[in-house]
Design brief:
Largest sheet: 6 strands, antiparallel
Distance between the termini: 51 Å
Strand content: 25-35%
Number of helices: 2
Structural class: alpha+beta
Number of strands: 6
């Protein structure tokens, strides 16, 4: 079922990896102000069981957009479908996981340090493999 979504600002086309798999289209709309302190950002995914337009919410347009992207990522992950996007590898949607800041600056920075450490280790290992 395809739902009309207005003011689309970004799209991503994904494909099921199984033979005869469907094309899934992610559409994200321009965030809009709901009240002076609330914004929403509509998103919709076709051909993957989403029956209604969903919304990311935030105190400003950036937070609402980030929440919409994260909402789409979570929906895709929970679908259990193996997908691929142009420029990606099998099983990748190209939508990175969001690191929440709601638990405070110290915890967020702790998560960033863990991520940075893992990335640095991976990069060092890749360099060593390439030198061999």
């Amino acid at each position: 079922m395809n739902k009309p979504i207005r003011n689309v600002i970004v799209t991503r086309e994904l494909h099921e990896t199984m033979p005869g798999g469907k094309t899934v289209l992610l559409q994200i709309a321009k965030p809009r102000m709901v009240t002076a302190k609330e914004w929403e950002c509509a998103f919709y995914l076709t051909n993957i069981g989403m029956t209604e337009i969903q919304f990311g919410h935030g105190i400003d347009s950036v937070q609402a957009l980030i929440q919409a992207i994260e909402g789409a990522r979570v929906f895709l992950e929970k679908s259990g479908k193996e997908l691929i996007w142009e420029g990606g590898k099998k099983g990748e949607t190209g939508i990175p996981r969001y690191v929440p800041a709601i638990y405070g600056k110290n915890f967020t920075e702790h998560l960033y340090r863990i991520i940075d450490c893992e990335l640095e280790g991976f990069a060092r290992s890749a360099e060593l493999r390439n030198k061999e």
